[in-house]
Design goal:
Blueprint (H helix, E strand, L loop, with lengths): L3 H8 L11 E8 L5 H11 L20 H6 L6 E8 L14 E8 L7 H10 L2 E7 L6 H12 L4 E6 L8 H11 L4 E3 L1 E4 L7 E4 L4 E5 L11 E4 L4 H18 L3 H8 L6 H13 L4 E5 L8 H11 L9 E4 L6 E4 L8 E10 L3 E10 L1 E3 L3 E4 L4 E4 L3 E5 L2 E5 L1 E3 L3 E5 L9 E3 L6 E2 L9 E7 L5 H14 L4 E4 L6 E5 L2 H15 L3 E3 L3 E2 L2 E4 L3 E9 L6 E11 L6 E5 L8 H17 L10 E9 L7 H18 L2 E15 L3 H10 L3 E8 L2 E9 L6 H9 L4 E11 L2 H18 L1
Parallel strand pairs: 1-3, 1-4, 4-5, 5-11, 6-11, 33-34
Antiparallel strand pairs: 2-3, 7-8, 8-9, 9-10, 12-13, 12-24, 14-15, 14-23, 15-22, 16-21, 17-18, 19-20, 19-22, 25-27, 25-28, 25-29, 26-27, 30-35, 31-32, 32-34, 35-37, 35-38, 36-37
Length: about 725
């Protein structure tokens, strides 16, 4: 265990203190309220970064440092911290890395779906992850989302079943949930000794030992555990579970399979090495358990991070694209290689200014160095480097391959930019983010705040790729769009606190989408003659439904010079303008293929404006003939309620046009899974509390877009028609 002075000394050392193989970049990810921040806080205590454990309910944890996080008891922004862990002998059970200190960079991510961008960008730069599950609820909706995000970016992970001290906790059920709902090849490396209020310790399967935690106050040394031999029924239980683990590993690892076939003994170090190999290749998920709140199992979790999650050299090297040839280029995790990094998060700090969080993939960076941005083709000098410790910023002189740090004072940077040496021009794959599903109009309460609000919203949009700001050209209103009501509520709160702007907001609006169901042809003409030179543009197009999720494709199939080459771009511009502003009801068009096939021009009167207008009219003409439909965002909703309120909540979901997907019973609770249109979910938090006397809870996440039923469509089209009439 390290103290704060030693940590500061290590961070400010002019040389690399921890080799790449002794570096871990991990994320803590889970469904909301599964215990991510509490787990992170305990890890920071046991690693010596803090000497007093904070609590989410008290608002004094290291990683939940924003005022909004402290007040609401939720994580809103991902927070990075660096800590150090030295594995101790512990009577011989952890021999493989005994006495070696490791540097662990941790990112604590939000669990609420409105802040999914924070998880997305964190997963892009992590080498490993700890997926935290509630021992009572098991796999929950956002658990599935963060699991998919980890899979998308090929992040190895271990699982920690938390809250084993809670009433209704069941380790086996949580494990079965992982296998069934996530398709995880998950096997325990620890088993709980007791559960609920009788949780006493853990069985270490690999070493066949029992670990018992003491009771009482936590000292600076932490809540210690005692290592004992297995006794009574524990022996048979541990041996059976160990055999299951060995069988699972032997199915995937040839060296263990060979030992099994030859009936040779499999020692703990050999088994651990095999588990590590499979974990790094994402072929096995080691599962631990405990209670972070009661400080039981946390040391074992940190040991598992060191033992099983990969260092930067244990996983395939990052790959980028050469800007000119677009050939794949490997970025080796090597301090002596040329510098290459990825900017994955922007943040405006009240004191330091604009922070750019970045992950170093190769080389090293020192204060005074010059870095290059291939996107902007500009160079900038590095004046200040920081390592972030929650709300604290620690200046450092240099960072190395595998490090996660922050730059201060860079301009023209966006999330996903590659930062590298100018003679090593390369572009790393940026993280991808979902489109907003909800929007509302916003305006300052006083005219004097107009400029301040614009600056504030612009900065917040730079930080958050899922938050958009734009002006509705038809109404002149400023529109903000995000992932949910809470997301936009936090944006308004940050405007008030950080930029001193009070703002009024309109009712939330749904981000509907338009598409078509059949193919059609369309023609657009723009002819104006008002004395002198006129305007002439004529375009013919064909449209058809595109594959779902493929977006909009515009193809040029004009032959014979029907439209001169210099006006083709103008026609396409008009088509894309019509697509963006909507044709059917004023909403963005998706999943349509458009072919420009014919047209005509006038040698004198044709110009870009005329052909742009012709493109708009052709698109509107074709779209109206192609069976246009309106799509609405549908949410995956999971409501957990005591059995006696099941009927009321089920009936309320049906009234909201919800489709029930499943009804499960677990620990005296009923879990209702449903698909519900987002338009019907406004105010649901108040409704479910009222129906259950405050005893039910729910979560939801975007699932897909579905056609708006005719009974609802008429009202939406009527509103669109009134807006059109008001404009004209």
């Amino acid at each position: 265990m390290s103290d704060v002075a030693a940590i500061n000394a290590a961070l400010n050392s002019p040389n690399r203190q921890f080799s790449l193989e002794r570096t871990r970049n991990i994320g803590i990810a889970a469904h909301i309220d599964a215990g991510k921040t509490t787990t992170t806080e305990r890890i920071l205590f046991y690693t010596g970064l803090i000497h007093k454990i904070g609590d989410v309910d008290d608002g004094n944890t290291v990683t939940d440092w924003m005022e909004q996080e402290k007040e609401r008891g939720i994580t809103i922004t991902s927070a990075a911290v660096t800590c150090f862990w030295t594995q101790k002998k512990d009577e011989g059970i952890f021999k493989s890395r005994e006495g070696l200190a490791h540097r662990v960079n941790i990112i604590d991510t939000p669990g609420h779906v409105d802040f999914t961008a924070e998880v997305e960008r964190s997963m892009r730069v992590l080498d490993g992850a700890v997926a935290v599950f509630c021992g009572v609820a098991g796999v929950q909706p956002q658990s599935e989302t963060v699991w998919r995000q980890a899979t998308k970016y090929k992040v190895p992970r271990i699982a920690f079943v938390n809250k084993m001290d809670r009433t209704g906790a069941n380790f086996k059920n949580a494990l079965d949930d992982m296998r069934k709902k996530l398709g995880a090849y998950a096997f325990p490396i620890y088993l709980p000794i007791g559960a609920e209020d009788r949780l006493a310790g853990l069985i270490d399967l690999v070493n066949q030992k029992a670990l018992y935690w003491g009771e009482g106050d936590v000292t600076n040394e932490g809540l210690k555990y005692e290592v004992r031999d297995l006794v009574g029924p524990q022996i048979e239980e541990a041996q059976e579970a160990l055999q299951e683990l060995i069988d699972a590993v032997s199915n995937k690892d040839d060296s263990i399979a060979e030992l099994v076939l030859e009936e040779k003994p499999i020692t703990a170090p050999v088994l651990k090495a095999a588990i590590r190999r499979l974990t790094c290749k994402i072929e096995l998920i080691p599962v631990l358990c405990g209670s972070a709140f009661k400080k039981k199992g946390v040391q074992c979790l940190i040991d598992a991070v060191i033992d099983y999650l990969p260092s930067p050299i244990d996983i395939p090297a990052a790959q980028g694209l050469a800007p000119d040839s677009l050939e794949k280029v490997e970025v080796p995790p090597d301090d002596n290689a040329k510098f290459c990094s990825l900017a994955f998060k922007l943040w405006t700090d009240a004191y330091a200014g604009k922070l750019v969080f970045f992950r170093v993939y190769s080389g090293q960076l020192k204060k005074g160095d010059t870095i290059y941005n291939p996107r902007t083709r500009k160079r900038e000098r590095v004046s200040r480097l920081m390592v972030i410790q929650g709300s604290e910023r620690k200046d450092v002189d240099s960072v190395y391959s595998g490090d996660i740090a922050a730059l201060v004072g860079l301009r023209n940077i966006i999330t996903g930019d590659t930062l590298c040496n100018e003679d090593y021009e390369i572009t790393l794959e940026p993280p991808t983010f979902p489109e907003p599903v909800i929007s509302m109009a916003i305006e300052p309460k006083t005219k004097a705040d107009q400029e301040k609000m614009s600056i504030g919203l612009q900065r917040l949009a730079e930080e958050d790729p899922t938050f958009k700001v734009f002006t509705n050209e038809e109404t002149g209103q400023l529109i903000i769009a995000g992932m949910g009501e809470l997301h936009l509520e936090i944006i308004r709160d940050r405007l008030k606190r950080e930029f001193s702007v009070e703002a009024d907001a309109g009712a939330p609006q749904i981000a509907y989408r338009e598409t078509i169901t059949s193919a059609a042809e369309g023609e657009g003409k723009w002819i104006r003659q008002s004395g002198g030179r006129g305007q002439y543009g004529h375009a013919c197009i064909e449209i058809e439904p595109n594959e779902k999720g493929k977006g909009v494709e515009v193809l040029n199939e004009i032959v014979g010079g029907a439209i001169p080459r210099e006006f083709i771009g103008a026609v396409e511009g008009g088509i894309r303008e019509a697509i963006k502003s909507g044709v059917y009801a004023g909403y963005q068009v998706i999943d349509v293929k458009v072919k420009m096939v014919d047209g005509s021009f006038h040698e004198v009167d044709s110009n870009e404006l005329a052909f742009r207008m012709a493109g708009i009219f052709a698109m509107k003409d074709a779209f109206s003939k192609a069976g246009p439909i309106l799509l609405e965002p549908v949410m995956k909703v999971e409501a957990t309620t005591p059995d006696e309120y099941q009927g009321d909540i089920l009936g309320d979901i049906n009234r909201r046009r919800g489709i029930i997907q499943g009804v499960d019973a677990k620990n005296g609770q009923t879990i209702l899974s449903a698909m519900v249109p987002l338009a019907e979910m406004f105010g649901y938090a108040t409704a479910i509390r009222s129906l259950s006397k405050g005893r039910a809870s729910y979560s939801m996440e975007p699932n897909n877009f579905e056609q708006v039923p005719n009974s609802v469509l008429a009202g939406i089209l009527d509103v669109a028609k009134k807006k059109g009439a008001a404009r004209s």
